[in-house]
Amino acid sequence: MANGHRSQVKRERNAIKDTRPSAKLSYARVSVQKACFVLDVIRGKDIESALGIVMYNPRYASTLIEKLIKSAAANAENNNGMDPTKLYVEECYANKGPTMKRIKPRAQGRAYRIEKRMSHITVVLNER
C-alpha cells in the first residue's frame, strides 16, 4: 500500500508533468508497423531535416507525421517559448489503436475477415 491518503497519492502522481512540447494523433488509419517505418527515420533529427525527410517520403503515414511535427513545433514556440531553430525530435512512437473488423465474401459461401488497423502516433520535441 502507498503511504498517505488516496487523494494525496493522486496529487503527487499528477504533479509529475512532462513539459516537453508534443503532438498526438489518435485513431490514425494506418497500422503501427507502417507508421514506424517513417518514425524510425526521423527519430533524433532536427525539425528542418525531419520535415524534409517526411515531405519527400512516398508513404501515407508521412503526410500524417508531417502535420504532427508542424503542430508540435507550433506548440513549442507558442506554449513553451522555445526557439524553433534549436528543436529536434526527441521521441516519436506509434501505439496500437482499435481494429475495425470487416468481412470479405469468398468462394463457396465462405467469408474472410479483414482487419483495418488503427494507431495512436505521438511526436515529442525538445531543445538542443
TrEMBL record:
<comment type="function">
    <text>The globular domain of the protein is located near the polypeptide exit tunnel on the outside of the subunit, while an extended beta-hairpin is found that lines the wall of the exit tunnel in the center of the 70S ribosome.</text>
</comment>
<keyword id="KW-0699">rRNA-binding</keyword>
<keyword id="KW-0687">Ribonucleoprotein</keyword>
<dbReference type="GO" id="GO:0006412">
    <property type="term" value="P:translation"/>
</dbReference>
<comment type="similarity">
    <text>Belongs to the universal ribosomal protein uL22 family.</text>
</comment>
<dbReference type="InterPro" id="IPR036394">
    <property type="entry name" value="Ribosomal_uL22_sf"/>
</dbReference>
<dbReference type="GO" id="GO:0019843">
    <property type="term" value="F:rRNA binding"/>
</dbReference>
<dbReference type="GO" id="GO:0003735">
    <property type="term" value="F:structural constituent of ribosome"/>
</dbReference>
<feature type="region of interest" description="Disordered">
    <location>
        <begin position="1"/>
        <end position="20"/>
    </location>
</feature>
<comment type="subunit">
    <text>Part of the 50S ribosomal subunit.</text>
</comment>
<dbReference type="InterPro" id="IPR005727">
    <property type="entry name" value="Ribosomal_uL22_bac/chlpt-type"/>
</dbReference>
<dbReference type="Pfam" id="PF00237">
    <property type="entry name" value="Ribosomal_L22"/>
</dbReference>
<protein>
    <recommendedName>
        <fullName>Large ribosomal subunit protein uL22</fullName>
    </recommendedName>
</protein>
<dbReference type="GO" id="GO:0022625">
    <property type="term" value="C:cytosolic large ribosomal subunit"/>
</dbReference>
<dbReference type="InterPro" id="IPR018260">
    <property type="entry name" value="Ribosomal_uL22_CS"/>
</dbReference>
<keyword id="KW-0694">RNA-binding</keyword>
<dbReference type="InterPro" id="IPR001063">
    <property type="entry name" value="Ribosomal_uL22"/>
</dbReference>
<feature type="compositionally biased region" description="Basic and acidic residues">
    <location>
        <begin position="9"/>
        <end position="20"/>
    </location>
</feature>
<keyword id="KW-0689">Ribosomal protein</keyword>
<dbReference type="InterPro" id="IPR047867">
    <property type="entry name" value="Ribosomal_uL22_bac/org-type"/>
</dbReference>
<comment type="function">
    <text>This protein binds specifically to 23S rRNA; its binding is stimulated by other ribosomal proteins, e.g., L4, L17, and L20. It is important during the early stages of 50S assembly. It makes multiple contacts with different domains of the 23S rRNA in the assembled 50S subunit and ribosome.</text>
</comment>
